[in-house]
Fold this sequence. Notes:
The complex is a heterodimer of chains A (115) and B (112).
Chain A: E1 5-7, E2 10-13, E3 19-24, E4 31-37, E5 43-50, E6 53-56, E7 65-68, E8 75-79, E9 88-95, E10 105-106, E11 110-114
Parallel strand pairs in A: 2-11
Antiparallel strand pairs in A: 1-3, 3-8, 4-5, 4-9, 5-6, 7-8, 9-10, 9-11
Chain B: E1 3-6, E2 10-14, E3 19-26, E4 32-38, E5 45-51, E6 56-59, E7 62-67, E8 72-77, E9 86-93, E10 100-102, E11 106-111
Amino acid sequence: xxxxxxxxxxxxxxxxxxxxxxxxxxxxxxxxxxxxxxxxxxxxxxxxxxxxxxxxxxxxxxxxxxxxxxxxxxxxxxxxxxxxxxxxxxxxxxxxxxxxxxxxxxxxxxxxxxx
Amino acid sequence: xxxxxxxxxxxxxxxxxxxxxxxxxxxxxxxxxxxxxxxxxxxxxxxxxxxxxxxxxxxxxxxxxxxxxxxxxxxxxxxxxxxxxxxxxxxxxxxxxxxxxxxxxxxxxxxx
Lengths: 115, 112
């Protein structure tokens, strides 16, 4: 079984540019989560999809961040325009059921650097 | 205010000993608590989940306890090996899988 795949693994962009991160969850996993870790801080929740619907987007920092999951398969997270404080590692995770006792499967993350 | 603390930023132990990591939380009422392992450049890897009504969970050399009165979870690795060296994260699931909160992590080094 393929794991959670994130693309790109690294991205360096200039302040003001747009970046789109992609996440391919495990096939059949309805739940998809985005998290991020900024330098020196804990991993923080951004949002949660169930299939194509946003279940909880309370962690999204501001309206420069837009997440989509069209068709309930892969998801994209777009940052437009990017700011310096957006630098960090963005993780995607998926699970079959909400509250799964099997835990959540994380991707390896996308390291975003805004210069 | 709400807070999650893990006992120390780094912990060094000798191979073969038991490593004990602590996760304390304040002003949360988690439905369950998870432990993850993270290696450099990788995402967290799920290890164990324990529910609020469970006292202890085991998996191979791993054991987790959960005391909702003390608001604390202990994570034990018995017969530790250098391959166990990693950062260990606790995560409180506070909305039944819709949102969970991570601690800062403890970096464990098992010395040969």
